[in-house]
Design a protein that fits this description.
With 221 residues, the chain is of the alpha/beta class. Helix content is 34%, strand content 18%. An eight-stranded parallel beta sheet has the order 1-8-7-6-5-4-3-2. Helix 2 runs parallel beside helix 3. The longest helix is centred in the last third of the chain and has 14 residues. The structure holds D-xylitol-5-phosphate and zinc ion. D-xylitol-5-phosphate binds next to strand 2, strand 3, strand 8 and helix 7. One of its GO terms (molecular function) is metal ion binding.
Amino acid sequence: KRDFKIAPSILSADFARLGEEVDAVLKAGADFVHFDVMDNHYVPNLTFGPMVCKALRNYGITAPIDVHLMVDPVDDLVKTFADAGATYISFHPDASRHADRTVKLIRDLGCKPGVVLNPAVTLESVKHLLDQVDMLLLMSVNPGFGGQKFIPYTLDKLKEARARLDDAGLEARLEVDGGVSTANIADVARAGADTFVAGSAIFGAQNYESVIKQMRDTLAQ
Ligand code: DX5
Ligand code: ZN
């Protein structure tokens, strides 16, 4: 059985009470804080920057913060997020002129590097990076918004990614992001994911504990 991690995306949290919300989902059993950074350039939406990550650390959040950079350019923000307490820093290679250099930069700054593939981007494009990253993040929606529908064809890419990582004996986490819920988490796990981002499915739920428990029970089957 893989070491499953649940990573609520704070994009769907109540930003007016962000510290309390993050505290609540972690107390409810979540593992990572999925931190969606959008710059209204790489994606058509604008969220929050490194100062909010720092604010969560100052508030007392000690869990891993899984920063998902939907920004272009990437490198300058890698430095500020490393200083702001990020744990994982994942970026879209198509948003960086020099993806290999960006992966090395993230690791040199003491964070865990990840690369993110949009639904239509092939695994082939990152084959030279898979042995350098701590996380491969596969988007199952087109980035920019929470609450979108899971794109079914991404399951095929997920199966291929699981095979590539296993065949190469690589330890990188395989994270799926977008439209994940209690209804499809079993299929996503069966296809090979070990880390599950969920925004609207968790923050839209009445009770964080019960929805996270339902996800874990489903994964344990
Ligand atoms: C979308 C973000 C996702 C999103 C997931 O661009 O990267 O992390 O917040 O939200 P749900 O789970 O509601 O699809
Ligand atoms: Zn994300």
